[in-house]
Amino acid sequence: MEKTTIQISESLRRRIKVFAAMRGARYDDVLQDFVDFFELSIPFKSEDDFAKFFEANLERFGFRRVLNKRYPSYPDYRVEDLNGDAKEVELELFARDFERHRHDPSRVDYIVALFSTEDHVSGVPVLSVLKPDIIRDLIEHKEDVKHVMVSIPKTLHRRMERLIKDTGFGSVSEYVVFVLREVVASIEAEKAAQPFSEEDVERVKSRLRALGYL
Amino acid sequence: MASVPHGGRLVTRVAKGERRRRLLEEADELPSLDLDLDAALDAENIAYGVYSPLEGFMVYEEYDSVLEDMRLPNDLPWTIPVVLDVDEEKAKFLKENSELALRFSGRTIAIMKVEEFYKLDRKRYAEKVFGTRSPEHPGVAKALGMGSFAVGGKIELVGKTPNPYERYTLNPVETRVLFKERGWRTVVGFQTRNAPHLGHEFIQKSALVFTDGLFVNPVIGRKKPGDFRDEVILAAYEALIRNYYPKDTVVLSVLRYNMKYAGPREAVHHAIIRKNFGCTHFIIGRDHAGVGNYYGPYDAWRLFKEFPDLGITPLFVREFFYCKRCGGVVNEKTCPHGDAYRVRFSGTEIRSTILNGGKPPPEMMRPEVLETILKFKHPFVEE
Question: ipTM score of the complex?
Fold first, then answer.
């Protein structure tokens, strides 16, 4: 297979070497594994593919319809959000490309990205398909026997993220669990049966009378 | 709306009539385990539904879930493990899926269907439940002295421990029927280990302003020297209720239970117990179930916020004190005056005054309550 050279930082090279040693694998094989993983986990070969994905999945990002498509001119889209407001959106496979492309942040409301490590780039909020915490969650949930995943609309997730700010809830999951427990307990309480029979009542009443309570 | 038992169903594991007689007969042939008073009271509390929905001593899954998550495996809030510990020697003779006679003072009080026995990590237990491993903490000291195994399984009560306060002992079915008969839809529970002073009275009355009834539920059990004796506490409450509460607004009944001093976790446990008795509200004061300086004064209040599904409303009440300028019993929310005017209610000080032959002033303790206490030749637990 024809090979090429990529430049990586010295610290990353050292980490890969340590990782290779831990696995008992060769450095080059580990690099190839990373490339395979990258290809598998990122299904878009180009930003064009990602644009098609975006248009087919507007609601995942909290949008209702495309008002104006300018792609590939900046900004790529004018869309309507679920509140009926018009928003300017720029698509990037990696959110940091927004900076590299030297876009004017004052002209967009959102960056829609495939991947981002940050919630904001150049001060613009990022809506990304993949985030480090999603990947982390995915890995942790695989080994987590105490939790299961429940899907909620991204838009609702975002609303709750805003709602829980400065409330002491550490995450949306924590808040959802709290609210659900409250709701489930109150429904269960409504459905609970009378805790004793009529016969019990008569027997108990005579003891209560004997003790002077009644 | 009346409180629903924890888990939706009031547990009753008390054998009666012919079944009880047969179980007692069979018990003679069964291997047996001698219980101390704490474990025997736990068995009674399980059987009478005080610990609903528990039907027996916890199996490992329940124990571990309570330690780690403060919930039973079915997600119900539960903060204190209810385990039956055994020493290693005894554990060797236990068999899973067998029956075991649980004895107290040589008499069988319950039959257990042994589901499993498991190793108890006592240090982990202490750290999780009490938040410390310090052997100075009385709960930790007791936990570290537990057997190294636990046996879990459902029980059926066939006998009872001797109870000097039978007259004041009501089980959850009885309190629920009583509350219903009195027409109470909302009931506030009050836990105490002391004879009442005016601070207690004002906390109770503040809650009673917006509930139909008050359930005064003193914990009867092991006490330390210098504490009021149980019969003194009961008599003092009788005097207070007779003289200072409207008729039929208060029920006085004891809880036979040994305090763990587990602070916040135990405060939640106490609330669950009162929920099972039928309370809709439960008063949580400063440093509830605390000891020494192991817990912050309002740690318990914070822990309650983790349980939106508890099914009983905690009433967080700040300390009351006597204010010389207000000329009455108030608290921080109702009095603007400074510390110079405030006389704090201190149970320790009241006890010490009485012990030294003095009389606490009427703004500290009702004269009728004091008079009742003084009628006892030995009102305090002695060494």
Answer: 0.84
